[in-house]
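Note on ligand handling. Small-molecule inputs were canonicalized before submission; formal charges were left as drawn, and no protonation-state enumeration was performed. Where a ligand contained multiple stereocentres, the stereochemistry in the source SMILES was retained. For magnesium ion, this procedure yielded the string shown in the input block below.
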Amino acid sequence: MAKLRYAQALNAALREEMARDPTVVLFGEDIAAYGGVFKVSRDLLQEFGPARVRDTPISEATMTAMAVGASMMGLRPVLEIMYADFLPLCLDALVNQASPARFIWAGQVELPFVLRTQGGAGAGAGAQHSKSLDAMVAHIPGLKVVAPAFPADAKALLKAAIRDPDPVIFLEHKLLYNSFGEVPDDAPPEPIGKAKIVREGAAVTLIASSRMVIEALAAAETLAGGGVEAEVIDLRTLRPLDTETIFASVRKTHRAVVVNEGWRFCGYAAELSAAIAEACFYALDAPVQRLGLADRAIPYSAPLEAAALPNAEAIAAAALRTLQ
Amino acid sequence: MAKLRYAQALNAALREEMARDPTVVLFGEDIAAYGGVFKVSRDLLQEFGPARVRDTPISEATMTAMAVGASMMGLRPVLEIMYADFLPLCLDALVNQASPARFIWAGQVELPFVLRTQGGAGAGAGAQHSKSLDAMVAHIPGLKVVAPAFPADAKALLKAAIRDPDPVIFLEHKLLYNSFGEVPDDAPPEPIGKAKIVREGAAVTLIASSRMVIEALAAAETLAGGGVEAEVIDLRTLRPLDTETIFASVRKTHRAVVVNEGWRFCGYAAELSAAIAEACFYALDAPVQRLGLADRAIPYSAPLEAAALPNAEAIAAAALRTLQ
Amino acid sequence: MSASPPAPGDPALLETLFARMVEVRFLEEGLRAAHKAGQTRGPLHCCDGQEAVGVGATAALAPGDVVTSTHRGHAHYLGRGLSLERVLGEIFGRASGYCQGRAGHMLIADRARGMLGGNAIVGGGIPVAVGQAWALQALNTGAVALSFFGDGAAQTGVCHESMNIAALWRLPVIFLCEHNEYGLTVAASQQSAVRDIAVRAQGYAMPGVVVDGNDVLAVRSATAEAAARARAGEGPTLIEAKTYRMTGFSTSDMGGYQSREEMAAWAPRDPIERAAAALGPAFAPRRAEMEAQLRARVEAAFAAALAAPFPDAGDLLLPEYRHA
Amino acid sequence: MSASPPAPGDPALLETLFARMVEVRFLEEGLRAAHKAGQTRGPLHCCDGQEAVGVGATAALAPGDVVTSTHRGHAHYLGRGLSLERVLGEIFGRASGYCQGRAGHMLIADRARGMLGGNAIVGGGIPVAVGQAWALQALNTGAVALSFFGDGAAQTGVCHESMNIAALWRLPVIFLCEHNEYGLTVAASQQSAVRDIAVRAQGYAMPGVVVDGNDVLAVRSATAEAAARARAGEGPTLIEAKTYRMTGFSTSDMGGYQSREEMAAWAPRDPIERAAAALGPAFAPRRAEMEAQLRARVEAAFAAALAAPFPDAGDLLLPEYRHA
Ligand SMILES: Cc1ncc(C[n+]2csc(CCOP(=O)(O)OP(=O)(O)O)c2C)c(N)n1
Ligand SMILES: Cc1ncc(C[n+]2csc(CCOP(=O)(O)OP(=O)(O)O)c2C)c(N)n1
Ligand SMILES: [Mg+2]
Ligand SMILES: [Mg+2]
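Structure output:
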């Protein structure tokens, strides 16, 4: 067991999978000698050589389609897209090539590629470098979408993603890369599609992913100070959604707050809210509270950006609303 | 008052707006001499000349960004994207350029462009020519999204879209182009953002847009045969959503079925379901029923495609589930 | 590009390729009739007049090579040795088709014969082929990826990105542009700023070759040369095959944009007639015999395909990530 | 591209441009200090060594012309005559900034001076400029659109699509590629299959010009020539300005990839020193005086910008489609 940063945990997962399987290759912008702008692929060029760790031109649409083509021919490419804001450039390849290929071709190919990217606001990176576009990728059948909050999950899920026969969109968060956590040394891959209860409680269920899990846990702490014991679910996988864990918790607490860092309208949290209200209709004692990013392009100036983002305070307030 | 096809109504709207305002220009693939593959711009090249009706190369990403640039400099471009399946190619320009420009630049520019496209399955056009990607565009702040079901609305809303200072994504449906309806001759533009009750009823509210309105009306007919009077709401605009009309109806009927032709998971109907359950929690007598496309790439073969699509029968069955 | 008959070269080979072109022509004749009879769904894209490109280019490939095709793939499919009956099964949406009816005519794939695969996103196959070539290179297969695309597709962004990356990485890929003078209904002169797409190869420091696309042996040898370069580690080649689409863009084409003069000028260059001429007058009786056999074969394949069952709608109820 | 001083040409003009370049350099010096002091958010992209490109090119424009910039826009902003204080206000996220602090350093726009605008999507401004040029052409303004972009951006799909359309439509646009040898940390030789981006102009039948990007007068005259062509209806020009980024890609650059030799080779070509040299030894005392004035001006602008208030978070509560 080591204490690692989230970026280091990802780096370890890449290293271990590359050592284990010679068909695992990395590509993306500035990922080779420089090790990636967030240093997730640090030292891997030196360890595995230029044929397996490749810098690319700035050509996200083509890179994504290349992952489709390379993976169907036997490589296991891991593509880094520098910012989640650039996912729209990848979407044609995801929606029109990756999504249909396995089903429409009746299983003739596997598409074992991973598209890693990072999103999230709070760093003053502005409207084009701060978004979480979870909803856009989670909407696409045939893909899996993973969004870990903690270093241990980051490592174990990235390993699973690399071994998976389907395309996996792996969503990281710029403000989590430096966060520390215990990471088991020889952890096996963690199954994709399983949420995790990261805090138990009986009064209300807080459901989040990625950095919003940290905010939800902080909210739970505040609520506990007021005698309210919140259960916190870290989704870890956004598609396929682990409804079993979610519904069981809501049937126990009878209340739910759902949070996603993307835009609220038609966002990922709408799926959570809808799924819960549809399946747990008779168990719910209060309307599901849904929190997301303000429906605006993300502003740069600190007070504006802060006002746009969901946070622990807003989550705690929403939880209290379910208890009124 | 004339009986026009949906495609003709759109054509009339383009013609009238072009005649009214010389800054309205059309561009897209095969829209000039050929009049568009669905003939929506038929004869307009002859009437308004090649400077205002322009064929383009196959370059959707650039065409969308051109609409952003041209509209901020004083044109009112109407861009035709041949199939909604190609919207992912347009998304970078929509998400990263069109969406932020007005808010982030503090109102320095207007972006009065319209992106017309058509989606929908049922024609055996296969996985890359049948999708409805409503959820992807409806998620984007700063855009408006319109999806008319009837010729009269198609005309009146397209006129409004062309005059609007914001980017409007105008979603048409390949199976509606030949549908007939009464279209007032000198109809004024219809305000964007207003849903319409197209059938009144007190037992359950069916909420849909585009071709699914036709299916919902057919379901209501069936239900009426069984003594169940359904209210049918045609959303007409997907963003901004007319929650007022929806909530008032649900508070009256206490039951709701929401339908969208896009994929169900994380789709547009999830927003409807969530919004209703959150706002009408105490008014609902049954869980909201959500219908969407099966979470699969759309198959070509007729029996498979039919099984993937929501239809009148499924809507009626869902309505009955709310009444059990 | 003259209309003179090609030098016979290897007459046995030319006869084989002649037969393959005729098979494609007969297939399409049958398809047009089937379309009129309502036995297919959606518009079909025929390649009359262009058969020499698909047949000639695929004839230069080896079994381990891989091909990406387009919406206009019949010559590519048969050239690559796919079974007539299973191609037709797919077009008729039957369980016996290559993809069990899920793909339809535009997206046919046959992994075993390296057809991966048809593509209805214009330009969509190009970057997929670059990814395939990367895998072929990284896995030391000695194989090449060949990507067919049109003059319209040459204007897409991914075409540029793909050529740049392929040239930079010296990937074993052949970019084969079928220049048939039209992208749907718009003439190439209205879509491309240059007449010869091959000129653009200079922008990637790779060879750009113009070849008479109606001379099946010329296409074959240009492709063979490019394949040899690719296998030798010398990287990609752009081949531009000048040809002409003798009929409409699809069965839904309403016509009116291909001038009579233009069509008349191209008629004598029909690649099938040119191959026959090159085989000399002695070929005539043999030709009649071959055509009779081929017609019988094609008719038998139609009959068999039309007799096959439709797939079961239960396919859609498989779990999302189980495709077969 | 030699390191010899440019011919002085018009000395008064050169002095003006010298002063503008120095102003940019001082601005960036101040920004680096402010960044270290924690007064800015996110990484800042400076253009040390490249000032002659932005300053020279904008000097060739007229008031009605419009410019799209990049993430590295300081020379473009000041070249276009934007106020130092309001640029700084934006960078400091203040209500006094050009966009009230919403845009931040990468997205600054000033409609009045035709700066529309900064862009942090690499390549994103290029097709926007094509759209702007279309409007300028259609509205008979006689104005031109100038799009700055980097050698990295030249590899993006939209760059290709944009040049093709601009050439086809003979749009009044100038494509100005600032070739500074790097796209982030990756050398141009690893990103572009050709050394000279200008070669690609042949693929669009438009003029491609290579100019010494560290010679401010040379950049200005190449741009003036292109602008004259554009205004005369002769269409677009691609100008490739060869220059060098003398510092890291941004304030968060961890370095290590620009070789000492390379940096040493470029140091004597500093465009500011070259302009000074061209102005002759007599310029020295005048230079000292100018620099003192400029430094005072820049310092005053910093002080004023830092004293301005932050915007009110209430901005976010405006209705979605009201931006000011
Ligand atoms: C991205 C995209 N845009 C538009 C279309 C609609 N479309 C289908 S075929 C076609 C023309 C393609 O021209 P070309 O590449 O020359 O191929 P050809 O049809 O001539 O074989 C168009 C515009 C599409 N399928 N995909
Ligand atoms: C679409 C996109 N991909 C990647 C990035 C990340 N990125 C920011 S600057 C940059 C390098 C750009 O190189 P170039 O165009 O040469 O401009 P320069 O930084 O040299 O001025 C990259 C890759 C981005 N902002 N947008
Ligand atoms: Mg063509
Ligand atoms: Mg650069």
